[in-house]
């Protein structure tokens, strides 16, 4: 946004300019630093490898599509005989320093690889145009300074009809579940609402998540077999060998009791009685044998 001086009603024009600037900044804060992020590939082009390259940001829709060939197709400044390199970016900084915010915030891009590394302080470290301590003074554009950072992990590829070219918009979703075609439609006019009328006109809305996908929770490892008896309020668990040992002892005890009972019964039936031997009888028997 750029403010110009009106020929008449200068004060009114200045007031309107300040108001519009304030609305733009407030709107930006309401949309996660809410700049309209619409590029994801940086083309660095020069007439030769020795010459200083000029950078151009374009939208390609994915990291795989960010190639030198795509830069040559999209930008006339990039041509086959020159030096062309392409680099994907996922962090867009929108900044303006004191004295330049009247012309609006300018975008600066780099590869952060995570939302934690796409911050205002990171933007200030990467680009001198981004102030390290912005005052965010929306009331006075002449002395205002701003630094916003947007991590872009969701790309919306949209066209309203079959004759339109794809238009790309990027925003921070935070998870694959939040990167959906419906959210693209709700965020951007370029993305038509889903429905039969959109399909009939050849409209398309595609949402592609490029952030880190959370890992699925690991399956619980089975607990090692315990050699102890486990007692709970509902059940008692015992090792197999302990149960077998107890069974053998019980069977042996029952067999012993039954054997004693049968033996006594047989003794009773045969008239068994206890006999006491006198030691004198043993001596007489020995004398007889002599």
| Main pleated-sheet profile | 3 strands, antiparallel
Task: Count helical runs.
Answer: 7
User: Ends: how far apart?
Assistant: 144 Å
What is the average of the pLDDT values?
Answer: 79
Strand content: 15-25%
Q: Which residues form runs of ≥5 with pLDDT under 50?
A: 1-33
3D shape? elongated
Number of strands: 11
- Pairing-aware structural class of the strands and helices? alpha+beta
Strand order, largest beta sheet: 2-1-3
Report the helical percentage: 25-40%
Order of helices and strands: HEEHEEEHEEEHHEEEHH
What is the radius of gyration computed over CA atoms, rounded to a whole number of angstroms?
44 Å
What does this structure look like?
With 290 residues, the protein is α+β, with helices and mostly antiparallel strands. Among the domains are: 154-209, no CATH class; 230-269. The protein has seven helices and eleven strands. The strands form four sheets. A three-stranded antiparallel beta sheet has the order 2-1-3, with helices on one face. Strands 5-4-6 form a three-stranded antiparallel beta sheet, covered by helices on one side. A three-stranded antiparallel beta sheet has the order 8-7-9, with helices on one face. Strand 7 (154-159) and strand 8 form a beta hairpin. The protein is elongated. The termini are far apart.
Kindly list the characteristics that best describe this protein:
single chain; 290 residues; alpha+beta; three-stranded antiparallel beta sheet; 11 strands; elongated; disordered N terminus
């Amino acid at each position: 946004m750029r403010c110009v001086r009106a020929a008449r009603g200068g004060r009114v024009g200045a007031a309107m300019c300040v108001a519009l600037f304030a609305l733009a900044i407030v709107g930006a804060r309401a949309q996660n630093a809410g700049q309209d992020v619409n590029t994801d590939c940086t083309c660095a082009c020069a007439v030769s490898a020795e010459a200083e390259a000029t950078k151009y940001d374009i939208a390609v829709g994915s990291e795989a599509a960010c190639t030198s060939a795509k830069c040559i197709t999209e930008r006339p400044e990039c041509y086959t005989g020159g030096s062309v390199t392409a680099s994907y970016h996922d962090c867009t900084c929108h900044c303006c320093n004191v004295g330049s915010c009247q012309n609006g915030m300018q975008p600066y891009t780099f590869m952060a690889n995570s939302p934690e590394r796409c911050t205002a302080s990171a933007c200030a470290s990467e680009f001198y145009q981004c102030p390290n301590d912005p005052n965010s003074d929306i009331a006075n554009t002449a002395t205002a300074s701003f630094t916003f950072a947007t991590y872009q992990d969701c790309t919306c590829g949209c066209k309203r009809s079959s004759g339109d070219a794809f238009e790309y918009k990027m925003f921070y979703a935070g998870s694959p579940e939040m990167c959906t075609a419906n959210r693209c439609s709700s965020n951007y006019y370029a993305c038509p609402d889903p429905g039969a009328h959109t399909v009939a006109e050849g409209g398309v809305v595609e949402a592609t998540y490029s952030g880190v996908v959370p890992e699925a929770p690991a399956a619980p490892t089975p607990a090692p077999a315990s050699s102890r008896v486990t007692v709970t309020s509902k059940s008692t668990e015992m090792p197999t060998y302990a149960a077998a040992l107890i069974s053998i002892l019980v069977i042996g005890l029952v067999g012993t009791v039954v054997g004693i009972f049968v033996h006594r019964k047989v003794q009773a039936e045969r008239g068994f009685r206890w006999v006491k031997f006198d030691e004198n009888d043993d001596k007489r028997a020995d004398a007889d044998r002599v």
